[in-house]
Protein: Putative zinc-finger
Organism: Paraburkholderia susongensis
Amino acid sequence: MGKCKNITRLLSDALDRSLTAGEWFAIRLHLPTCSGCRNYRKQIRLLRAAAHTASGIATPDAAANGDD
Ligand SMILES: [Zn+2]
C-alpha cells in the first residue's frame, strides 16, 4: 500500500508542474479503483477554481492599498 500517498502527491504536483506520462499513467490506473483519491482530486480542483475566482474579483483599489 502507500500508493494513495503517492497519487495524491502527484495530483497536487500536477497543479504546479507537468507530470510525466508515467505519472499520469499511475494516476489513471489508480483513480478508478479509489474513491478517496477521486475525492481528493475533486477537492483540489475546487480549491484551485476558488482561488482563481478570488483573484478575478480583486479590485484595483485593493491592489493599490496593498502598496501603501
Ligand atoms: Zn487512492
User: Anything to note?
Assistant: The chain has a mean pLDDT of 86. The radius of gyration is 17 Å. The pocket of zinc ion is lined by residues 4, 7, 30, 34, 36-37 (CB under 6 Å). The longest helix spans residues 35-56.
